[in-house]
Amino acid sequence: MKPLVIFGTGQIATIVHFYLTHDSPIDVVAFTADQTHIADDELLGLPVVPFDRITERYPPDSYSMFIAIGFSRMNKVREARYHQAKEAGYELATFVSSKATTWPGSVIGDNCFIMEDVIVHPFVEIGNDNIIWSGSHIGHGSVVKDHCFVSSRTAISGNVTVGPNCFFGTNSTVRDKIAIARECVIGAGAVILKDTQERGVYVANPARLLPTSSDRLPNL
Q1: How far is CA 144 from CA 40, 60, 108, 128, in A?
Q2: Where are the alpha helices (DSSP H) in the chain?
Q3: pLDDT of residue 218 exceeding 90
């Protein structure tokens, strides 16, 4: 397995570094980013190299890469860097935590990051460049297309199709046999019971503040 360069210098990048260091055989050797996003020439004891010079220091025939960027602009910032790295010739690694549950026959693309306690059922297809946070569930026969971000405890039921560039908030739920259209936002706690429309934003009912204080509740 090739040593790896992480694209990114933010919180996602440091989380990716931690997981790869403690839960994979991958050797992380450097970080890279656009020059405008580099504040220091070192991060976590490793060099930070401008992306326009990365092939000189860490050529793609000897090093792999992971694009560690969050969901900015519906994951399109990460998507753009994904394509740039591929065009530069880099193999993009996928990480599946040893504490995740997967089954033979599941398909998982490149530049995916699947954290602990994620359950990926049989016959699932996960495309390229997807981040699936801790404790999420991808039900049997579901398809998650490219460049999505699935937050913690998301429940995607069986035979769901998720279009590209979607975002799922924490504890969101999708019923079985639903189609989530491309570039949708499914907000935290939202429950989706029918097909969504492209670029739709779906939010849950927020909690209400009652006109009483907690010390006046009789049974609590």
Answers
A1: 36, 28, 9, 9
A2: 11-23, 54-57, 72-87
A3: no
In this model, does residue 220 exceed pLDDT 90?
no
Q: What pLDDT was estimated at residue 105?
A: 86
Q: pLDDT-derived band of residue 151, with 50, 70 and 90 as boundaries?
A: very high
Tokens of 98: 């040893």
39 vs 10, 65, 85, 109, 142, CA distance in Å? 11, 21, 21, 32, 41
| Strand order across the 149-150 sheet | 95-96, 113-114, 131-132, 149-150, 167-168, 185-186, 201-202
* Contact criterion met (CB below 8 Å) for 50 and 33: yes
Structure token digits, residue 139: 């039900």
pLDDT at position 219 over 90: no
